[in-house]
Specification:
29% strand; 138 residues; zinc; metal-binding; Mss4-like_sf; 3-stranded antiparallel sheet; 9 strands; Metal Binding Protein, Guanine Nucleotide Exchange Factor, Chain A; mainly beta; 6-stranded antiparallel sheet; Met_Sox_Rdtase_MsrB_dom
Amino acid sequence: MVVKKIERSAAEWRARLGPERYHVCRERGTEPPFSGSYWDSHEPGVYRCGCCGAPLFASTAKFDSGTGWPSFTAPVAAGQVETERDTSLFMDRTEVHCAACGAHLGHLFPDGPAPTGLRYCINSAALELVRDGEEEPA
């Protein structure tokens, strides 16, 4: 799957996003656990990138990890998210970002449930849920 790349300046992103979303997605921030709008959401739908609207995760891949952040076993489709090594904060982790716009989403850990054994630990501020039956964004 080829993902169309979206590029904007920092000023353009800042104008489009609220302060929290800008900090999380464009400055690689993290919201406090148990504070985001989706950590305990059980509504069916597709979680899209909060910056560009690209589909990222299906609610059917969401599980309760007990961490306080939305967690998923896999992206909605191959190529929708990308990963890279993150050695900030004296840790060695795998960062997850939107393949379309590069937004920082969260981190990937190898301690998830079957079938993948992966845990995509994602900030609520990086997501926008389009509930089943709702109109898709243009």
